[in-house]
Inverse folding.
């Protein structure tokens, strides 16, 4: 796994555990791993590599195994998961695909509403031409 | 002798699941919630939609950082409600597995699936109330329970005929010797007979017919409306989203804006 994914994985796992960056930093300090919140931010954004000692401590604090960090992410794809989990007909898989599209739309609308995702709204063509 | 296909749980496990169901019922009662679909909507993104397949009655998933429960409304409402209670167990007690494995299908026969079934039964058909109701509306000896008695019970508790029959046997209110005969009425081949008994007992057929409803929690519809009204999404995006949910733009009083040409 490339370091890019490790940083993102740490961030995701930290958020899943409901920990803020400074909370994780404090817990690491308790284990004698002293990094600043800014350093953690750099690690999560892949602007700094994480050492083996730091990674081990992070896993300890998050109560996860190193394998959890290095395991390849199962893509959020229901169709793939259904294919893997059981023997479903092609018709069922097609229906799951449609259902997945619907769920994606719903979640996306929530993200827009909460400001997590800011869609770039295109200006009308006439306005673009004027500018 | 108890028939094998009844698959009744051992008593310690049932009591363990009963305790969880009591906790869950109390927790949501404090919020004024008692309907299984309302409870699920509190815990997850609940999507009810008919799929033209009987291979999937429902599933829970952890999708794009959201707990999602899907229920196939092409199954009878009684079946769908039971699936909902089953999925509630997974969402509440298997959330870590869900986060890791992403998908739990309710037709994989794992230990957690068995627990989810027992939990669902305890949640939708509370032991004390089933007994109270039985003596109130049926009140016959276990060996003389008839299909119409089960219909009375399952309509009061809003579960399927078969789930009710199993519960009555489990609680010793119906003789296990009659299971096979009584279960036949709940089979697809005898759907018309069950409908007739249900009508004759004065109930509608809602529980034994698929609702085919397309439904998501209201708040998500509000998100779409708000996003559109605050110019965060285009008319076409809003239209596509609401139509995907089986709704129309006209329902919300939205008209195609003349100036929008993208």
């Amino acid at each position: 796994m490339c370091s890019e994914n490790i940083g993102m994985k740490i961030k995701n796992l930290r958020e899943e555990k409901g920990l803020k960056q400074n909370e994780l930093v404090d817990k690491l300090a308790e284990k004698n791993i002293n990094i600043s919140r800014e350093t953690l931010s750099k690690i999560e954004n892949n602007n700094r590599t994480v050492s083996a000692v730091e990674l081990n401590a992070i896993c300890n604090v998050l109560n996860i195994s190193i394998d959890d960090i290095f395991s390849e992410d199962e893509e959020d794809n229901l169709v793939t998961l259904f294919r893997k989990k059981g023997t479903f007909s092609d018709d069922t898989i097609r229906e799951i695909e449609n259902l997945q599209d619907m769920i994606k739309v719903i979640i996306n609308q929530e993200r827009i509403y909460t400001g997590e995702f800011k869609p770039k709204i295109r200006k009308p063509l006439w306005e673009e031409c004027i500018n | 002798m108890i028939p094998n296909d009844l698959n009744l749980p051992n008593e310690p496990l049932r009591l363990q699941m009963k305790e969880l169901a009591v906790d869950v019922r109390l927790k949501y009662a404090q919020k004024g919630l008692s309907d299984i679909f309302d409870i699920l909507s509190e815990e997850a993104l609940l999507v009810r939609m008919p799929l033209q397949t009987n291979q999937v009655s429902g599933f829970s998933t952890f999708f794009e950082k959201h707990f999602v429960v899907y229920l196939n409304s092409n199954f009878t409402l009684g079946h769908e409600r039971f699936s909902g209670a089953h999925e509630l167990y997974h969402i509440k007690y298997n959330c870590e597995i869900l986060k890791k494995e992403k998908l739990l299908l309710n037709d994989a026969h794992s230990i957690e699936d068995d627990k989810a079934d027992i939990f669902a039964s305890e949640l939708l058909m509370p032991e004390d109330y089933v007994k109270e109701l039985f003596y109130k509306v049926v009140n016959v000896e276990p060996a003389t329970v008839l299909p119409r008695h089960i219909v009375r019970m399952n309509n009061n508790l809003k579960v399927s005929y078969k789930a009710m029959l199993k519960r009555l046997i489990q609680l010793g209110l119906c003789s296990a010797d009659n299971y096979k005969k009584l279960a036949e009425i709940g089979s697809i081949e005898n759907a018309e007979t069950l409908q007739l008994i249900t009508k004759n007992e004065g109930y509608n057929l809602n529980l034994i017919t698929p609702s085919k409803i397309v439904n998501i929690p209201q708040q998500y519809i509000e998100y779409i409306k708000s996003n559109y009204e605050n110019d965060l999404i285009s008319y076409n995006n809003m239209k596509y989203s609401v139509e995907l949910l089986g709704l129309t733009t006209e329902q919300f009083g939205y008209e195609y804006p003349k100036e929008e040409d993208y």
User: Anything to note?
Assistant: The radius of gyration of chain A is 20 Å.
